UniProtKB/TrEMBL annotation:
Location of the protein in the cell: Membrane
One cellular component term from this protein's GO annotations in UniProt: membrane
Membrane topology, from the record: Multi-pass membrane protein
InterPro entries: RDD
Descriptive protein name: RDD family protein
Keyword Ribosomal protein appears in the UniProt entry: no
Keywords, comma-separated and alphabetical: Membrane, Transmembrane, Transmembrane helix
Domain RDD: 26-147
Principal localisation: membrane
């Protein structure tokens, strides 16, 4: 067994390759826009279901409209970013994926926490989200630094 693995250092040489981060920042922005559109499209059939539920419950079901957007987004992120490909549909289209620095796969909970921290960071620190990527190693965003994750190109 490798001495680095025995000492707990499981760094992946592929994650240390500079080519894995070329164009990642731009690809992340376009992937976000694609994913935003996908979530908006997914909200249409769910909104129809909530509307029908509201009719059946004499208006009580319409209370779900208040959480419709976040609920659809969380389910989408859980199933895509937390899935086998470790990437949302937008990320897959742009050729990037989320990876953990410790080498373990991204699970649904980490995927949701990653997205929630991204949105919370945008609400509180809008310009810092992308500015951090200019100075951080591996072009990592603030929420990547907090969670020990990195976005890499999936084609390299």
């Amino acid at each position: 067994m490798n001495e680095r693995v025995l000492n707990g250092d499981v760094s992946n040489s592929r994650l240390d390759d500079v080519r894995a981060y070329q164009g990642v920042r731009t690809r992340r922005v376009f992937a976000f826009i694609m994913d935003y559109m996908i979530v908006l499209l997914l909200m249409v059939p769910v909104a129809i279901l909530v509307f029908l539920l509201g009719l059946l419950t004499f208006g009580i079901g319409w209370q779900l409209f208040g959480i419709l957007g976040p609920a659809v987004a969380v389910i989408y992120v859980w199933n895509t970013l937390g899935g086998r490909n470790q990437a949302t549909l937008g990320m897959r289209a742009m050729g990037v994926r989320l990876e953990r620095l410790d080498g373990r796969p991204v699970d649904g909970i980490l995927a949701v926490v990653h997205s929630v921290l991204f949105w919370a960071g945008n609400v509180l620190l809008t310009p810092l989200i992308l500015l951090v990527t200019l100075f951080a190693d591996r072009k990592r965003a603030l929420h990547d630094l907090l969670l020990g994750t990195v976005v890499v190109r999936s084609d390299r």
